[in-house]
Structures are given as C-alpha cells and as structure tokens.
Amino acid sequence: MKAGKKRRQKVNYEQLVVDTVAPYSREKLHVFLNFPDVAVTDQSHWAVLLIADAIMDTHMMEMFDRCGIVKGKVLGFQWKLISRQIGHCSCFRTAGLAAKRCISHQKASTDSATGSEADFCGDHLLLITVFGATGQQGGPVARALLSSGFAVRAVTRNPDSEKSLSLKQAGAELVKGDLEDRSTIDEAVKGAYGVFLVTDYFGILHRLGDDNRAEAEEIAQGKAVVDASARAGVKHVVYSGLPGAKDVIGHRVPHLDGKAVVEKYLGEAGVPYTSVHYPAYYDNFGSYFKAQPQPDGTYAITLPMNGPMYTIAVDDGGPVVASVFSNPGEFLGKKIGIAGDRKTVDEYAAIISKVTGKTVKYNQVPVEVFASFPFPGADDLAYMFEFFASGNHNQDQTLTKRLNPNVLSFEEWAGRNKDKF
Q1: What is the pLDDT of residue 7?
Q2: Which of 247, 275, 361, 403 has the fewest CB atoms lying closer than 10 Å?
Q3: How far apart are the first and last CA of the chain?
Q4: 21 vs 84, residue with greater confidence
C-alpha cells in the first residue's frame, strides 16, 4: 500500500441500517408508508428494507430477515429524505407479500395494457388535501406543508385567483371545490393521505344572515368532509376545531358550538384525527378588534374581554399543523390548543401604542352591550369573550413553541405589521 493512501473501510451495511433506525413509535409508520393490507410488523420489515435499498442502491432481500424490527423502532430517516435517494419507486415482492407502492402515488397513471409496477413511479410525497387553501388559516397551512415536504392539493373556489396561482407556483395542485357544493368534496379528498379542514362560520353568516342557519350549515359542511374522508380511507384529518361554550357559560356561541359538534362527530365516525384549537388572531387587532379614533385624538379598542386572552399570528399556525401531520403517533386522537401569547387587552393596547406612536387604550364594555352592537355576529363574539374569560380552554404556549419554534410574540408580530393598525 502506498504511503499516505488510506485503506477504504468496509461498510457493515446491516449495522448501518440498524444505526439509522430512529425512536419512532409503530403508529408513526403511516406517515411514511401506505400498506393498508399489511400488518404493522410487516410494514416495519418493509421500512428496514427500504432504508437498505436507499443506502445500498440495490434490492437486499436478505435484509428482510437479518434486520427485521430493531427493538420496536422504525425508520431512521424522514421518508422525504429516503425518497430523494431512490431514483425509482421502491416496490418489492418478498415473503409472500404483494408488491406495494412505497407511498401513495396519487398522480400516477396505470397503463391498461401492461399494468406494470413502473406505472406507480411518481411523487413520493404524502398528499394532504387543504380546504380553504387561500384563506387565513388554510393558506399558511398549505405553504407550511409544502415547505415540510408534503404534496398539497389546494381546494379553492377560484383556481385563477392570485392566491391560488401563488400556491400553484409553490408546488400545490389546485382543485376547484367549495364546501357549499357537496359534490366536489369526494373528489377533493380522493387518494389523499391527510386532510386539513377549516370551516368559515362568519363567511357563512354573512351569506345567510342568520346565526342558527349559519351554525347548521357549518356543521353540515364539516360532517360532509368527515364522511368523505371516511369513504376515501384518509389516514389523518387535522381539523381546525374549537371547544363548545354553551355548557360552560350557559349561552350559545354558534361558531364555537358548531365546531365542537363536528369535532365530536369526527371521533364517532372513526376517522383518525387531531383537532387544533386556534385562539384569537393577532391579525384581529387590525380588523375586528381594531382601535377606533376618539374625539380627544386617542384610539380605543372596545371589547368585553375580562382578563388575559390567548392569541397567535394566524401565519404561525401553519407550521404547527405541518408538525402535527408529521407526528401522528403523538397527536392522533388528541385536541391541542395553540397560542403565541397571552396578555390582557390593556397590554395589547400598550404594545400597539409603542409600535405606532398612537395613544391606544382599552375600552372595556359589558358583554350585553357588545352583543347589542349592530353588526353580524356581535352576539356570537360577545359571548366568545365571556367563554375566553372562563378559562375553559386548552391553549398551550410551550407545545406551540415546540411545534413551531419560530412562533412570534404579539410584540414581535406588531413590530413587523405596523401598517395593520
């Protein structure tokens, strides 16, 4: 051997596979693989085989028996990283199992003449259908999912809108659909691994003009998506839900109570789900809660809120939802409350004063007074604040920060959005 030339170290591929196996629970397999008619144990074997194939770029059938499940752990790499190392669809036949697609290739076409496995090659990313993809919640969710390596099917009323085209440019598939048109829902969720569902109570209220009808329609929309997801075999629905208020404060809050009904229906329907409870948005201080000019030159935020209130930048909810989809073993069957900040309205007003140079004060009014204001939904919002003040919600700032380390405080957000005030 020539001086200075190092001998290439022999790679123990079996040990390399073992070393890459990460501490994921078995339930998390469904994030990476879609083998519905194979037992979880067999899926774990397949996962190890796929890792071996990614590392060695060859089909190592003997790895199936040699590696198996290592201490009940599975999948050392994020699937999206594995898939980028494989130049073809990693489908195999072994141990009497029929060949499977390595992931849900939703866009793959089948050659009717040959029916070859190669026809299943295509996008290796898990597909998430996002309802309301151009809305306040759905837009950030769609963008965060794309950034996290998911494929996104964006459901939009107008595929030619500026927001829709922006999502298309970012890599989303656009599908024309509308929760008001139930006939579009089945096609929107067909073949999807996951669904993000958000319903727009206040949009419905503005259209129908009656809170009873609006609540009933929101419930019907939510249930229609749940039913369609069940028919399509969707593996994970993330629902933008909210807790019910009537049993807590003794007064209807339609946009809370309706979502609680859908949340309960999700559980009863047996669809794997997580419910994410958003609090009030920071953005509302530039719209619904916007400080109004007073005769003395100051500005006042008029609300019936008593005590501190949880809030979040609506954009920051997107990465939270993406993290939930990435970690179903932790979040399936759970209801989680998210928040970026918690302050009294006086404190929110002080921050707005600081960043704008205006004098902004809090003008607290009784719930009954706010409920009488002449705009659609005033009663609903008034009693929402009473529910907020009751403390019967599940917001968790620590969890939110873990799921989205870049979540902003209200002061940080306000400093970047002075123009909204």
Answers
A1: 53
A2: 247
A3: 74
A4: 21
Residue 154 near residue 140, CB atoms below 8 Å = no
- The amino acid occupying position 174 is L
For 334-372, how does the pLDDT look when each residue is reduced to its tens digit (9 = 90+)?
A: 999 999 999 999 999 999 999 999 999 999 999 999 999
Describe the strand order of the beta sheet including 236-239 as a list of residue ranges.
173-176, 151-156, 127-130, 194-197, 236-239, 273-277, 335-337
Report in angstroms the alpha-carbon separations of 191 from 154, 226, 376.
14, 15, 38
State pTM to two decimals. 0.73
Give the confidence band of 234 by pLDDT, cuts at 50, 70, 90. very high
pLDDT at 3: 53
Contacts of 258 (CB under 8 A, 6+ apart): 199, 201, 215, 216, 218, 219, 222
- Quickly tell me which residue has 């200075």 as its tokens: 4
| Alpha-carbon distances, residue 117 vs 52, 58, 102, 294, 363 (angstroms) | 20, 17, 11, 70, 67
> Looking at residues 124-144, what average pLDDT do you find?
93
Residue ranges of alpha helices (H) inside 275-373 are 317-326, 328-331, 345-356, 367-371
Tokens of 143: 């963008």
Cα→Cα distances 321→45, 138, 283, Å? 29, 10, 19
Q: What is the pLDDT of residue 125?
A: 78
Q: Give me 285's structure tokens.
A: 């201080």
CB atoms within 10 A of CB 10: 6
d(CA 308, CA 341): 10
Instruction: Label residue 315 left, alpha or beta by phi (over 0 means left) and psi (-120 to 50 means alpha).
Output: alpha
Q: Which pLDDT band holds residue 392 (cuts at 50, 70, 90)?
A: confident
Helix (H) / strand (E) element for 57: namely none
Determine phi and psi for 40, rounding to 5 degrees.
-55, -40
User: Is the Cα torsion angle 77, 79, 80, 83 positive or negative in sign?
Assistant: positive
